[in-house]
Design goal:
Elements lengths: L1 H7 L3 H8 L3 H17 L21 E4 L5 E4 L5 H13 L1
Antiparallel strand pairs: 1-2
Helix pairs in contact: 1-4
Length: about 90
């Protein structure tokens, strides 16, 4: 629930109202989640990237992750959705 709340872009109160969860319950989950996260390396890990030759259409972006997982962004993408994906990946 903590990850969903942080990725939602909503305030804690809005998230709780939408889900029917008491604010105190969410606060407990968030505190536990954040404690667990700081137990390891609290800073996001950055990796070197290589810009490959241009392919595809202008305005497209493809990010290839470990295990050949891909994130593809095309022209007209929803910026808020991309922001949530990046926020979730930074916490993972």
């Amino acid at each position: 629930m903590a990850i969903e709340c942080e990725a939602s872009g909503l305030s804690q109160r809005e998230f709780c109202e939408q889900r029917g969860v008491p604010l105190k319950t969410l606060a407990r989950y968030l505190a536990r989640y954040r404690r667990e996260q700081t137990g390891g390396n609290p800073m996001p890990q950055w990796v070197a990237v290589e810009v490959a030759a241009k392919r595809g259409n202008p305005g497209e972006l493809t990010i290839v992750l470990a295990g050949e997982r891909r994130i593809e962004v095309r022209r007209g993408f929803d910026a808020e959705t991309l922001r949530r994906v990046v926020a979730a990946l930074e916490r993972a």
